[in-house]
Amino acid sequence: MFGRLLASARVRASLLLVVLGCCGYGIYAEWPQMRAALGQLDWSSLVLSAAAATAGAGCMMLSWRAVLADLGSRLPVGAAVRVNFLGQLAKYVPGAVWSVATMVELGHDNDVPRRRGTASIVIGLAIHVAVGLAIAAVALPLASSASARHYWWVLVVVPAIAICLYPGILGRLVDRGLRLARMQPLERRPTARGLACALAWTGLGWLFLGLQVWFVLADVTRHVPDSFALALGAYALAYSAGLLLVVFPGGIGPRDLILVAALAAVVPHGAAVVVALVARAATTVSDLTWGAVALAIGRTGQRLALRARGRHRKVADGQTAQPRLAEPRAGSAPLTTAPR
């Protein structure tokens, strides 16, 4: 019953409107504190936050590319950028199915089997969530004991997810999921080496995403101890939870509310709302920037393909064929090369 309700586009849109309405009321109620916090922001912090968000998204893309290569499809970086970030633009449509479907179909255009593309996306998301929750479990207690008390459940969830990421267990889980989706099992299962590469890129990506929040947090709240640990842990928790809440497009609403709640344990509530709004804006700038790059790569590829097709046509028409040697006339002696 609940699953059928969430499958309805009207129900999902209504949930999104309710969450956005709550966010809007929160902004209205906290506006005096927010105005004071906004006055402390410097434009350089906004630029650095957007740059860090863009770098973090790039690392997460390379993590997914490493998973896909481990499963047997190694895409060039340009093709991986196009598949990943054009698919990421579809996440703003309610329901995660649109983003996944777009990435799978774009990958299929690059000779990636659909079941392999689907498995790579699921494994990539699992790695992002596992590393994010592990970072939150370590960073939040360092920043605040109150955060550790509120989010103790993260410490319980992380070991369970880590066990599921063991190559043998992960491979069986993925094959079982593919069977449920009426797909054939994978030709190659994940390996420890491939997962280690993906984990390394994901960890680097989380560091950049933590910087995305920290640049703003350091401006809004002066003299906060362990501010980077707070920014990293809070955003890792909010982002990971947002990935799990697939009903909301791009995690809009729940991710921001969780980030505010995690930051508000240490900083004023109005300042936390400002940080969450700027982080959301930086994420949107990152998505649009990478989307523009992906479109540019696609246009460049089309131009190169058209040029190559034109050259092939010229060769087929004989315009660039090599000249033939003149044939000897009738009755003349054949051409011979005199020995030296």
Summarize the structure.
Helix content is 76%, strand content 0%. It has 340 residues and is mainly alpha-helical. The longest helix has 48 residues, at 269-316.
Describe this structure in words.
- The chain has 340 residues and is mostly helical.
- It has one domain (13-303).
- It has helices spanning 2-7, 9-29, 31-38, 43-71, 77-89, 97-109, 114-143, 145-150, 153-164, 167-180, 192-220, 227-244, 254-263, 269-316.
- α4 (43-71) packs across α14 and α7 runs antiparallel to α12.
- The longest helix is centred in the last third of the chain and has 48 residues, at 269-316.
- The N and C termini lie far apart (94 Å).
- Mean pLDDT is 77; it is low at 1-7 and 335-340.
Structural class: mainly alpha
Q: How many β-strands, per DSSP?
A: 0
Instruction: Give the mean pLDDT.
Output: 77
Count, helices: 14
Shape: globular
Could you describe the largest sheet, including whether it forms a barrel?
A: none
**Rg from alpha-carbon coordinates:** 26 Å
How would you describe the oligomerization state of the chains in this entry? single chain
Question: Low-confidence stretches at least 5 residues in length (pLDDT < 50)?
Answer: 1-7, 335-340
Q: Helix share of residues?
A: over 70%
Number of domains: 1
Order of helices and strands: HHHHHHHHHHHHHH
Give the termini separation.
94 Å
Beta content comes to under 5%
